[in-house]
Design goal:
By secondary structure, this protein is mostly beta strands. It has one helix at about 30; strands spanning about 5, 10-15, 20-25, 35-40, 45-50, 55-60, 65-70, 75-80, 90-100, 105-110, 115-119.
């Protein structure tokens, strides 16, 4: 069972920054459309940012202009740079891989990393 591994969550004051990282075995990050999702207590999981295997990005309106999703140059990790954090950004952040190419039809998730934003 392939699982993605997130890191970088923590406690930050409002207005601060965090960088989340997601790693996966093999070339999953390179071959897949990658995304970051978050889930706040009592709420549904929502897409925050995504990047296709070709590098096209998409953001939720609530984070556009503050968050940036990108892969490293080796295309082995995907990051979510979060700036100007707000209390409503808090939640568990999950990394997702939607497979393309030889991974087509497969979806992978991580166990999540907690982000807490104090006001």
């Amino acid at each position: 069972q392939v699982q993605l591994v997130e890191s970088g969550g923590g406690l930050v004051q409002a207005g601060g920054s965090l960088r989340l990282s997601c790693a996966a075995p093999g070339d999953i990050v390179k071959a897949s459309d990658m995304g970051w999702y978050r889930q706040a207590p009592g709420k549904q999981r929502e897409m925050v940012a995504s990047i296709t295997s070709d590098g096209f990005t998409k953001y939720a309106d609530s984070v556009n202009g503050r968050f940036t999703i990108f892969r490293d140059s080796a295309r082995t990790r995907v990051y979510l740079q979060m700036n100007y954090l707000k209390p409503e950004d808090a939640g568990v952040y999950y990394c997702n891989a939607d497979g393309r190419g030889r991974y087509r039809g497969r979806t992978y998730w991580g166990e999540g990393t907690q982000v807490t934003v104090s006001s």
